[in-house]
Design a protein that fits this description.
The complex is a heterotrimer of chains A (345), B (314) and C (341). By secondary structure, chain A is an alpha/beta fold. Chain A has 13 helices and twelve strands. Chain A has a domain of 240 residues: 3-Layer(aba) Sandwich (Rossmann fold). Chain A has an eight-stranded mixed β-sheet, with helices on both faces. A four-stranded antiparallel β-sheet of chain A has the order 2-1-4-5, covered by helices on one side. In chain A, a hairpin with a 2-residue loop joins strand 9 and strand 10. In chain B, 65% of the residues lie in helices and 0% in strands. With 314 residues, chain B is mostly helical. In chain B, helix 2 crosses helix 3, helix 3 packs antiparallel against helix 8 and helix 8 packs antiparallel against helix 10. Chain C has a domain of 237 residues: Rossmann fold (3-Layer(aba) Sandwich). In chain C, helix 3 packs across helix 4 and helix 4 packs across helix 5. The model of chain C has no long low-confidence stretch (mean pLDDT 89). Classes of the chains: A alpha/beta (345), B mainly alpha (314), C alpha/beta (341). At the A-C interface, helix 7, helix 8, helix 9, helix 10 and helix 11 of A face helix 6, helix 7, helix 8 and helix 9 of C.
């Protein structure tokens, strides 16, 4: 891995051979009254233009914290980043001064959240809020900004955009608000869009609409999409590759077909077996026993071992590194071969 | 789906980042793990609380057992020597003497009782009256709620000093009970409002719905489910108000409508010392100091209690 | 899950309108939110009826109506033949012993200031005839065991438990009175994926062990399919389709059901290009102002004139084996990947 040099704003074009975004051995900690919470423990993944990376995990896995570290929106204190780099076209974002990071945030890397209602300011019209992106970052006049806002609202398929540009967020439905948030985020043609559980709070038919919209937008612009979710169904529909997170670490990295067909980590395997399917009726769901780990008091060795049916002695002692299983696969399990073979431990 | 304490909107909530999961025990869990127990555990460790409590303990002891602090009995007319008027601080008179030659230290010590009694009594009355009315109004809603809310709005419109003056003028006599009554009448709407708001929030919680689904009676729901969850905010306000009541009593006595001679009140002492302040500043400064410290102690206590009971910090 | 026996819950033409009023002193009714607008179904002993629908369809209101937490505007709810919709006082209290509820949010459905033992024991305090005083503690501990928790934890408080464990406590509370029917209102939606399976398995096991009947209300179609024997689909206050789980999922007849099912992402990337995609346009109409005739017609690709004029009743349509409310009902498999595409 190349070490970066002096902190400058990331280049506008791809330096040769650099992926669009690389998270390299990122560690994030929170200092709380009860102790130090190790939310992210050495996470690495990369994203290329036009790719969709799904980061899959449950609560406490660190998936959202990683994304916020990329955006630079963590409250520090209490958060701190003791180790790791986040490279955007080769430039380490963590080493940039705050001023430069602000120029990256929103313009080059954008983020949408789960709850659009609270992400939008209730006292400004949606036209104002979308237009603000142009007024602040491109110095556009109010009139031009509103025109651009209408264009964007059309692009995200909000009907009657011209009339609705002066409406307030609460006058829109949940799905529409999510579209507005998407419009704001793509306003300046970012190269990376991070979507943190964008459809979890939405109905399934609205979810389908939003995911379709995201797919279209991505295809149009070669934007890289990082989709953070816990929903294995959504991931199967849209992702090219997946990083599965557990206990602040990546436990498996693979292309989407490989993960579903032959998972290499017991957690992934357990998850796949435990979700009910709409196209099949099973006898009994496989339930992963136990509970997600307490981030203040992580188990020794592998964070998953208390719940693992493949556990052996070495799992309690030594935390598994991310073993390379193939050119596009990696898994953090000492016994990944057994898991791949399909024998239940 | 997330670490939130209370997922927003009923479905899955916003992920909360990095904070420890609910449901796991802290490294050293207190024995009584109820929310009250947790709050007490937390309170014991706050310097603000410890400091305030110490101060208040001293003041309460002073109020209950003034003879522990001074052997002079200021109510006995013979303890004041007119010839000793306006003497400075000395061995015989630690805080000096006032216009009538009475020992200021002894008067200050004995004045604690009235202040604390007024503060405490008013707090208890406003908490009980406002709290119970707020509980019923918030729970039942409807006509009772509307009526009470309009009434309390009228009270809020009355400026408190003028209102107190008016009430005390009607009574003509000024003693601990009339002062308490005047203050309570004007302040109960505050506790009413706070209790009512807390009750309305609690009423809509799922566990109240669950209790109804079990067939719980209205009384059970009010006193077993809603009251314990609504009372925290009232406790916080009551504790802070204690300080204000003490200051209010002093103010009213200063104005001449509160406690009167021969009752001892810090406010009265300040009023008496006002004219000859330049000659005998200690006559005003010491009671003022004690007054400030007392009010401060209660407000600090209320602050610490509020922080400890704040559910968002749990 | 064998669904034998006679119906223990009969719902007929259940309607709940919430009035919309204007004015402060004198309130006038200016409209109504027609949350539930004529729903009928039966629930048999030991079976699970799944109710699915999206937000605004009325399923949460339906749950409250079944639990008599709201009074219906009209219609009837009978448990074992006894009408509970307008029952009052002692009669209502007695009826509650037979139908209990598990709620969605494990963080707000338990009183944070009561111990777990008190929470589970409260049903016995309210209904004193169910268990003698000396017996209560033992029963509470038994219930904790039954749901897979440590009976020694009776004196702990809810905040000391995880989300999944709290949900188990809620289930234990629901079982205390030994009801025949449990209404589950989104019981696993707020839980982590890996915990959902534990709780679903628990519910199924309890059903087998105690012969419970469930009304399982959820928006997650996969979970509903897994646990239900029969399913009803709701849209804007009406039930638009109902039938056995295989009928609804493999051979849906109503266009809304088809759209709903095609929108569910399946965790299988292989078939993703070959499944049918029906993307509905626009937002659902407001329940305060539902479209005339068939409520789904504003978003339906099959809509014709008759749909605006005549509301299609829920009944078995020609060419199908189960009831649906569409003039042009036609079964169509949308969730399985098509061959050779």
């Amino acid at each position: 891995m190349k070490r970066t040099s002096a902190p400058t704003v990331p280049p506008e074009e791809a330096p040769d051979g650099e992926p669009l975004l690389v998270v390299d051995d990122l560690h994030v900690e929170f200092v709380t009254r009860q102790g130090v919470v190790k939310a992210v423990n050495g996470v690495s993944y990369s994203l290329n233009p036009g790719e969709t990376l799904a980061v899959l995990g449950e609560s406490g896995s660190g998936k959202s914290v990683t994304a916020q570290a990329i955006m630079g929106i963590l409250d520090s204190p209490p958060a701190r980043v003791p180790r790791g780099e986040i490279r955007f076209w080769g430039t380490n974002l963590l080493a940039l001064p705050e001023e430069a990071r602000t120029r990256v945030r929103g313009r080059r890397i954008a983020m949408i959240f789960q709850d659009a209602l609270s992400a939008l300011n209730p006292v400004f019209t949606v036209g104002d809020q979308i237009g603000e992106m142009f007024r602040v970052h491109r110095g556009a006049s109010r009139r031009d900004a509103t025109k651009k806002a209408i264009e964007l609202m059309d692009r995200v398929r909000i009907p009657a955009a011209r009339q609705r540009v002066h409406d307030y967020p609460h006058q829109f439905s949940g799905g529409m608000r999510q579209r507005i948030m998407i419009a704001m985020s793509i306003a300046l043609d970012p190269q990376v869009l991070i979507a943190d559980e964008p459809t979890t709070a939405l109905d399934v038919t609205v979810q389908a609409q939003i995911m379709e919209l995201l797919g279209e937008l991505r295809r149009e612009s070669e934007m890289g999409l990082i989709l953070i979710t816990h929903d294995l169904g959504v991931v199967a529909d849209v992702a090219d590759k997946i990083a599965v997170m557990y206990g602040g670490r990546i436990v498996e990295n693979a292309l989407v077909h490989d993960i579903y067909r032959r998972p290499a980590h017991p957690y992934t395997k357990g998850l796949l077996a435990s979700i009910p399917r709409v196209d099949q009726k099973g006898r009994e769901l496989y339930a992963i026993k136990g509970m997600p780990p307490n981030l203040l008091d992580m188990p020794t060795g592998c964070a998953f071992h208390p719940r693992c049916s493949y556990r052996q002695d070495d799992c309690v002692v030594e935390a598994p590194p991310l073993y390379e299983i193939g050119p596009t696969r990696a898994g953090a399990c000492h016994h990944w071969r057994e898991v791949l073979d399909g024998s239940r431990g | 789906m997330s670490d939130t304490l209370v997922p927003a909107g009923g479905k899955t909530g916003r992920p909360k980042h990095g904070k420890p999961r609910r449901g796991t025990r802290r490294a050293k869990a207190p024995k009584d793990a109820s929310l009250w127990g947790d709050a007490w555990y937390d309170l014991r460790r706050r310097p603000l609380f410890v400091g305030a409590s110490f101060l208040i303990t001293v003041l309460v002891v002073m109020a209950v057992f003034p003879s522990l602090f001074t052997s002079v009995n200021p109510f006995d007319a013979r303890s004041c020597e007119l010839a000793d008027a306006r003497l400075g601080m000395s061995e015989a008179h630690w805080f000096g003497t006032d216009n009538l030659g009475c020992d200021i230290y002894a008067r200050t010590v004995h004045g604690a009782r009235n202040s604390i009694v007024v503060g405490l009594a008013t707090t208890v009355v406003t908490a009980l009256v406002g709290g119970l009315l707020g509980l019923f109004a918030g729970f039942r809603g409807g006509a009772l709620d509307t009526l009470l809310s309009r009434i309390t709005e009228i009270f809020f419109a009355i400026p408190s000093i003028l209102g107190a003056l008016l009430i005390l003028a009607v009574f003509r006599t000024g003693n601990v009970w009339t002062v308490m009554l005047a203050l309570a009448v004007l302040t109960w709407p505050m506790t009413y409002r706070i209790m009512r708001a807390a009750v309305i929030t609690a009423k809509n919680q799922d566990y109240v719905l669950a209790a109804r689904a079990l067939g719980a009676s209205a009384w059970r729901i009010m006193f077993r489910h809603i009251l314990p969850n609504a009372i925290a905010s009232v406790i916080v306000v009551a504790t802070i108000n204690l300080g204000y009541f003490i200051a209010a009593e002093a103010g009213l006595s200063f104005l001449g409508v509160g406690l009167r001679s021969p009752d001892i009140s810090w406010g009265l002492m300040i009023s008496d010392a006002r004219e000859r302040f330049l000659e005998a500043p200690w006559a005003l400064l010491f009671p003022a100091l004690f007054l400030s410290l007392t009010v401060l102690a209660f407000i600090m206590l209320g602050d610490a209690v509020r922080d400890a009971l704040d559910p968002k910090l749990r | 899950m064998a669904a034998a026996g006679e119906p223990i819950l009969e719902v007929r033409d259940l309607v709940k309108h919430f009035p919309l009023t204007q004015g402060i002193v004198l309130r006038r009714q200016v409209g109504a939110i027609k949350a539930v607008d004529g729903v009928s179904f039966d629930l048999r002993r030991g079976e699970t009826l799944g109710i699915v629908g999206e937000s605004g369809c009325g399923k949460s209101t339906l749950a409250k109506l079944l639990m008599a937490l709201e009074r219906p505007t009209s219609g009837s709810v009978r448990i074992n033949g006894h009408q509970i919709a307008d029952a009052k006082g002692r009669e209502l209290k007695r009826a509650r012993r037979n139908i209990q509820m598990v709620m969605q949010d494990p963080y707000t459905s338990l009183n944070p200031r009561m111990t777990v033992g008190d929470i589970i024991g409260e049903p016995f305090e309210i209904h004193r005839e169910v268990a003698p005083r000396g017996d209560r503690r033992r029963r509470v501990q038994e219930l904790l065991e039954v749901v897979g928790l440590d009976p020694g934890h009776v004196n702990r408080y809810p905040h000391q438990f995880s989300g999944g464990q709290r949900q188990r406590i809620g289930i234990a509370r629901g079982l205390a009175l030994q009801p025949e029917i449990i209404v589950c209102d989104e019981p696993v939606s707020a839980l982590d994926v890996s915990i959902q399976a534990q709780v679903v398995n628990l519910l199924e096991r309890l059903q087998d062990e105690f012969g419970l009947a469930y009304v399982f209300i959820a928006h997650d179609l996969s979970v509903v399919r897994h646990i239900s024997d029969r399913v009803g689909v709701m849209y804007l206050g009406k039930m638009v389709e109902s039938g056995k789980d295989t009928e609804i999922y493999d051979r849906p007849a109503h266009p809304y059901t088809q759209a709903l099912l095609s929108a569910v992402p399946v965790p299988d990337p292989e078939g993703r290009e070959r499944r049918e995609r029906i993307i509905l346009r626009g937002d659902p109409p407001s329940p305060a102002n539902p479209p005339s005739g068939c409520r789904f017609r504003t978003r339906c690709w099959k809509a014709e004139e008759i749909c605006a004029v005549e509301e299609p009743p829920l009944r078995v349509r020609p060419g199908t084996a189960h009831a649906s409310a569409c003039h042009f009902a036609e079964t169509h498999d949308v969730i399985h990947a098509r061959e050779g595409v």
